[in-house]
Design brief:
- The protein contains 9 helices and 5 strands.
- It is of the alpha/beta class and 208 residues long.
- It has a 5-stranded parallel beta sheet, sandwiched between helices.
- The chain is globular, with a radius of gyration of 16 Å.
- The chain starts with a strand and ends with a helix.
Length: 208
């Protein structure tokens, strides 16, 4: 029996890591076999890529081209699907993934301006057709989300990209959700984390 792939998406500071962890723990407590992972990361190769794409640019270094970002994220994604996600789904596990292919569409597509159709082709090659059964969009305004991050904990996207970029990313996520309502659930992540989790759990239990 094939398992289920649940992705959590959203702008910076939406609480994806926290909610993914809580969701995995709750599902395990209810008897589900769960695999918790994240993007970029989740494998040895993916964690190395994570260190590259999220690190701040060296002094005097050229900005990272959005296409390079998209290809690096998809390289990590391909390894994650091959090494972790596909085997877990084949074993009937519930895979909870903080970010997946939609993040590349939102950030490098809507945020940085690359053609969405081109990014979909690259993502399809990286995932081999693996797609989430449910995507939870933890929606938060960039003003609120970025304010949740201390300056010394911000990654490259949080520190080096302006507010307009993050607004385009948020708008992109919302458009993706509107275009595919059967897969997406939009959850107001500006509320108390317990209230957010209640909605997360309700949406997940509905498909399990």
């Amino acid at each position: 029996m094939r398992g289920r792939l649940i992705s959590l998406e959203g702008p910076e500071g939406a609480g994806k890591t926290l909610q993914a962890q809580r969701l995995a723990e709750e599902l395990e407590a209810r008897g589900q076999r769960v695999r918790l992972t994240r993007e970029p990361g989740g494998t040895a190769l993916g964690e190395q890529v994570r260190g590259v794409v999220l690190a701040h640019a060296a002094a005097g270094g050229a900005p990272v081209d959005p296409r390079a970002d998209a290809l690096l994220f998809n390289a990590a994604r391909a390894q994650l699907v091959s090494e972790v996600i596909r085997p877990a789904l084949s074993a009937g596990e519930v895979v909870v993934c903080a970010r997946f292919a939609d993040s590349t569409l939102a950030y490098q597509g809507y945020g940085a301006g690359l053609p969405i159709d081109e990014l979909r082709v690259v993502a399809a090659a990286a995932t081999g057709g693996v797609a989430p059964d449910l995507t939870l969009l933890l929606d938060v305004s960039p003003e609120v989300g970025l304010a949740r991050k201390a300056d010394d904990t911000r990654n490259r996207f949080e520190a080096a990209f302006d507010l307009d970029f993050h607004r385009r990313v948020r708008d992109g996520f919302l458009e993706l959700a509107r275009n595919e309502p059967e897969r997406w659930r939009v959850i107001d992540a500006q509320r108390d984390p317990d209230a957010v989790f209640a909605d997360v759990l309700e949406a997940v239990l509905a498909i399990l």
